[in-house]
Amino acid sequence: MANMTKPAYDNSIQSILPPMLLPTHHSEEKRVTQIPAAAKATTDSAGWETLQTRFGGVAFQTSQPIVFSKGLLGMPDKVHFGLANFPNPKFAQFKLLQSFDDHAVSFIGLPLGLQNNLIREEDIRRACEDLSISPEDVAMLLIVTVHRSATGIKLSVNLRAPLIIDAERRQGMQYVFPHDRYSVQHYLTSEQNAAS
Prior knowledge:
This protein is an alpha+beta fold. Helix content is 14%, strand content 30%.
């Protein structure tokens, strides 16, 4: 995937994050900062609105949604979403994908870098071709499931159907790989969690 470099991918992820999530200081890595839980109390002229999510109040720019025109699997009527930093700083590597159509619907997402040890590069390239997304504009997000048991908490991600987003057009799709190479419930190790 010659054109899909880490800086280009980081720029794609950042371009779908609202401006208030971007760093206020200049940094080589351009890390996003934590969103304040009560950054906006009401909708303003720029379209910022604090939504009460299952993780608390989080500000989104509802006037600029990411549109999943076919919805997500099992939810064809949920098409407008916002992406924010996860409200708990302990989980800064995760993002919150929030439905604007139904505020009760939200997902924990794990951004996946282009070079990773979970999904093969050629499969990502094929998905971009299938969806007519320029490699420079692609951003990927894996939906996370939290498994609680008496022995603790484990996290799994859906590798079989990642969310692939065209950051330039703010359009996304849940892409299902046409083979069974990837699991719907892939348990993360701490190393994978940190490296993704």
